[in-house]
Design brief:
Layout (H helix, E strand, L loop, with lengths): L7 H6 L3 H14 L16 H26 L4 E2 L6 E2 L9 H4 L7 H6 L2 H4 L3 H14 L8 E3 H20 L13 H13 L13 E3 L14 E3 H5 L2 H11 L3 H15 L10 E3 L4 E4 L1 E2 L6 H13 L3 H17 L10 E2 L9 E3 L5 H8 L2 H18 L5 E3 L6 H5 L15 H12 E3 L7 H13 L2 H15 L3 E2 L2 E2 L2 E3 L4 E2 L5 H14 L14 E2 L5 E2 L24 H9 L6 H13 L7 E4 L2 H9 L13 E4 L1 H7 L10 H5 L2 E4 L30 H5 L20 H7 L13 E7 L11 E5 L18 E3 L5 E7 L21 E6 L2 E2 L6 E4 H6 L6 E3 L4 E4 L2 E9 L2
Parallel strand pairs: 24-28, 28-31
Antiparallel strand pairs: 1-2, 3-4, 5-6, 6-7, 8-9, 10-11, 11-12, 13-14, 15-16, 17-18, 19-20, 21-23, 22-25, 23-24, 25-26, 26-27, 29-30, 30-31
Helix pairs in contact: 3-20, 3-21, 8-9, 8-11, 9-11, 11-12, 13-14, 15-16, 15-19, 16-19, 19-20, 19-21
The chain binds 1-deoxymannojirimycin.
Family: Belongs to the glycosyl hydrolase 47 family.
Enzyme class: hydrolase
Keywords: Calcium, Endoplasmic reticulum, Glycoprotein, Glycosidase, Hydrolase, Metal-binding
Length: about 850
């Protein structure tokens, strides 16, 4: 039973199509130069409309870039409000907000090189490359910069531009190109990689491009983060493979794997690290700032270089997030990495990239659920706050009021208006929006996967903000304080290199990047990367055996062969030392030892420490890993399941599969508008979703005029507000949940549905050989209340009082049943509180669970 959202949604949903058409025609004549018209080809928007959106985005890009070139270049940025060039803060070396990325190296130019390719502007691309050739021979610059920022923005920009300049298959190769962009990248890479010369084993967060990391004040070298340590592997990997110099990839990869090996028993990595001691400084983790690109690069490295170990890391780390961090709305919340306790109840602007990453991983459902939260933020603020507190409740409201919040409530002693402002102030924890790309990025990825016109409409709304509020005399100015709407006097390089690039790509279905021959992986700074054996390797390393050097001089000779310029000596000597000291180590992979694996180790005479017991987490080299792989999943089976021609798939979360968005509509409309969970965020977090006064008069994007009239043709549907209670429960130990065996039931080749089956197991159900080490969310089925799926709970045949909603990271669909093996129940029940009824229902603490059943063994 679906209920329609009350009020305006319901009325609009029932508008007669002829009225819509007349309305559209009127609009056509009055205000819109280009209006909506449906076309199946491009997810609903007409070609004309998309072209208009593209042109408008393009002209925004050129406005930003040309302003930079006219007023900013050769400095790093341009101040969008005053048109003054913007560069490092020379007076305050601790001003990392500026100095981390602005290295006095024309940052904006390097970061935007490949954007010209994306826009199809070959001339512009060549012109800027020539400008770089004329201006930069190396990065011999006395500037302390952050290694991560310079890697993703400058090194990444150079590598992508080099790929386009050199690879004839992509249509942007430059005649007589001699690889100078890669040489520049190599020069920069050699300076950046010195940050790894840190006894603690993690790279220094910052380095001096001319003198190396020791020239940076110690106070700036302490605080490191998981993303900063691990997210160099894509750029460094590509640099190594294109130059035939392995050191960059070896060191960054080894560091990544070491970092991963220090995860907690729950499979989670904390995100703040002391670079001096390589110790986590607190245990909080999440998916936003400080850890975001750890997840991103695990997955992207595995795709770019077809690396199974990194794919395993992605899957294991994501599985841990699904189990412990994802809440019932779909937010990946901040938690304690060691005990999974809920930590801070905020999400940040950087975390908005995560839905896009989930699309790349093939998990559309969780991608969209998380995306809706960021979408509501955009509706509310016309921006994404740097940090948004979704608990808002605790502060102004709950401190003064003990009853649950309702939209028209006002706080004691305050008017309704004052209440809204107070709640808004509480929710916006960090108040700036520097035009970050992450929300646009996820909008783009979701559109690519679904072709739902809703995402184009979101993009259009963002574009409109850029054309109006964000537009500045010399580029674009973000928001300094969302609460009052003041402007920020800065245009970071990612505005052009990422935000507008993703926006343009959203509107450009035919872009080369969307064709088979143009496929690429976007770096975390949106630089397109690809790698295959047809790419020319430039042999920067030139097969020169690493000289056994202890003194100055030998590397200089090597350097001379590569560069016409005199070598920046200090860097080079250190580089050689690094090469000697940090020689290659094999990749170690973490595994949890089982009895079967231990037996295998004995059988193959592999030596191991005497205190090694099953259940322990150990790190094994690739050889041992391969040897143990067949023993990693225990083989389970069940007679009844087999007899029904069903099989068991251990990948119950579907992490190795790609979800496909079904487009089963005959007339183009937005399916998203019919997704009943879309509106849950409004219900659940209404206390934290108040617009600032200056942004009150805007209409929510999804019901904004002509778009809704055309694409909401099937009406909006929403579940009514859930009034049952959810609670979390644990059977066994949290430490064990990562390794619990759970299976997805799958139809075998001879499967025939049997409606009269005595045990009604269906494909898609879950099967558990043992009921142990499970993290679960239950719903209490109180009669008369509205349940998770919008239905009124009735007193049923069996009078079940609980329903399982989530088990070890897996959200159950309404009809899914979890089957538990009777053999286990019969022989073991270590906690004594689990039972079953004659009808085959499971009971926990005497309460009947509606969707956990017993399957005979
Ligand atoms: C970008 O430089 C990159 O996307 C990075 O990974 C994190 N954030 C900024 C933009 O917000």
């Amino acid at each position: 039973m679906y209920a329609t959202q009350p009020g305006i949604f319901f009325q609009i949903a029932n508008v007669d199509m002829t009225v819509v058409l007349v309305y559209l025609l009127q609009l056509l004549v009055t205000c819109f130069p280009v209006t909506y018209a449906s076309s199946g080809k491009y997810g609903g928007f007409s070609e004309l409309h998309l072209k208009d959106l593209r042109n408008r985005t393009k002209s925004l890009f050129y406005h930003g870039f040309n302003s930079y070139m006219a007023h900013g270049f050769p400095y790093d940025e341009v101040d969008p409000l005053t048109c003054e060039p913007a560069s490092r803060d020379y007076e305050d070396i601790h001003n990392t907000w500026k100095n981390d990325a602005m290295g006095n190296y024309s940052l904006t130019l390097f970061d935007t090189l490949d954007a010209f390719v994306v826009l199809g502007d070959k001339q512009g691309f060549e012109r800027n490359i020539q400008l770089i050739r004329d201006t930069y021979q190396n990065f011999d610059i006395d500037a302390n910069i952050q290694v991560f920022e310079t890697t993703i923005r400058v090194l990444g920009g150079l590598l992508s531009a080099h790929l386009y300049a050199s690879d004839e298959r992509r249509g942007y190769s430059i005649e007589n190109y001699d690889g100078f962009l890669l040489r520049l990248a190599y020069d920069l890479g050699k300076r950046l990689v010195l940050a790894f010369e840190n006894k603690s084993g993690v790279p220094y967060p910052r380095t001096n491009l001319r003198y190396g990391p020791l020239k940076v004040p110690k106070s700036l070298q302490r605080e490191q983060c998981t993303a900063g340590i691990t997210s160099l592997i894509l750029e460094f990997g590509l640099l190594s493979r294109l130059t035939n110099d392995p050191i960059f990839e070896l060191i960054s990869r080894k560091t990544f794997l070491n970092m991963w090996s220090s995860k907690t028993v729950l499979g989670l990595l904390p995100m703040t690290v002391d670079a001096r001691s390589n110790i986590f400084t607190d245990q909080i983790t999440g998916v936003g700032a400080s850890i975001d690109s750890f997840y991103e690069y695990a997955l992207k490295y595995s795709i770019l270089f077809d690396d199974e170990i990194f794919n395993d890391i992605w899957q294991e780390s994501y599985k841990a997030l699904l189990m412990h961090s994802q809440n019932s709305i779909g937010i990946f919340t901040n938690i304690h990495a060691s005990n999974a306790a809920a930590a801070r109840e905020w999400i940040d602007a950087l975390g908005a990239f995560f839905p896009g990453l989930l699309v790349l991983a093939g998990d559309l459902k969780n991608a969209f659920d998380f995306y809706t939260v960021y979408f509501k933020l955009w509706n509310t603020y016309g921006a994404i706050p740097e940090r948004w507190d979704f608990s808002g409740f605790r502060w102004s409201y709950a401190n003064r009021n003990s009853k649950p919040y309702h939209l028209l409530d006002s706080l004691p002693g305050m008017s309704l208006e004052e209440t809204k402002v107070a709640l808004m102030n509480d929710a916006v924890l960090l108040e700036w929006y520097p035009l970050r790309p992450e929300f646009v990025e996820s909008t783009y990825f979701l559109y690519r996967a679904t072709k739902d016109p809703f995402f184009l409409r979101v993009g259009e709304a963002i574009l409109q903000r850029f054309e109006t509020e964000f537009h500045a005399p010399c580029g674009f100015a973000g928001i300094d304080n969302i609460r009052i709407g003041t402007r920020q006097a800065r245009m970071e390089s990612f505005v052009l290199s990422e935000t507008l690039k993703y926006l343009y790509l959203l509107f450009d279905p035919e872009n080369d990047l969307h064709t088979k021959n143009g496929a690429a992986i976007f770096s975390t700074e949106a630089h397109p990367f690809w790698f295959d054996d047809k790419l020319k390797v430039y042999n920067m390393h030139q097969d020169i055996a690493i000289p056994e050097i202890t003194e100055k001089g030998v590397m200089e000779a090597v350097w001379d062969k590569l560069f016409a310029q005199a070598p920046p000596q200090e860097v080079d000597i250190q580089f050689a030392k690094l090469r000697l000291e940090k020689n290659a180590l094999p990749d170690y992979t973490p595994i949890t030892l089982t009895e079967r694996m231990k037996e295998a180790l004995d059988r193959y005479h592999v030596k191991y420490p005497s205190n090694l017991e099953p259940g322990k987490r150990i790190f094994v080299n690739p050889k041992v890993y391969q040897l143990l792989k067949p023993y990693m999943t225990e083989k389970d089976s069940n007679r009844i399941i087999q007899e029904m021609n069903l099989t068991l798939d251990p990948d119950y979360l579907g992490l190795s599969k790609c979800q496909v968005f079904s487009r089963d509509h005959t007339f183009v409309h937005s399916k998203i508008l019919q997704y009943p969970m879309f509106y849950r965020v409004n219900d659940r977090y209404q206390v934290a979703l108040h617009s600032p006064p200056y942004y009150r008069n805007t209409t929510n994007i999804e019901i904004d005029g002509p778009f809704y009239d055309l694409f909401g043709t099937n009406g909006m549907v929403s579940f009514p507000t859930q009034s049952t209670e959810d609670f979390d429960a644990l059977i066994g130990s949290l430490e064990g949940v990562l390794d619990t065996r759970i299976y997805r039931v799958v139809a075998g080749p001879n499967y025939q549905p049997d409606e009269n089956a005595t045990v009604p197991i269906l494909p898609q159900d879950l099967y558990l050989p043992a009921l142990d080490n499970l993290r679960m969310t239950f719903e209490r089925l109180t009669p008369g209340r509205i349940d998770r799926y919008g239905q009124i709970v009735e007193v049923g045949q069996y009078n079940c009082s609980l329903r399982l909603l989530k088990i070890n990271g897996c959200n159950l669909e309404m009809d899914d049943i979890v089957w538990v093996d009777y053999g286990w129940l019969r022989t073991s029940n270590p906690y004594g509180n689990i039972g079953y009824t004659q009808n085959g229902f499971l009971t926990i603490n005497g309460e009947l669970v509606a969707n956990i059943r017993i399957v005979p063994d």
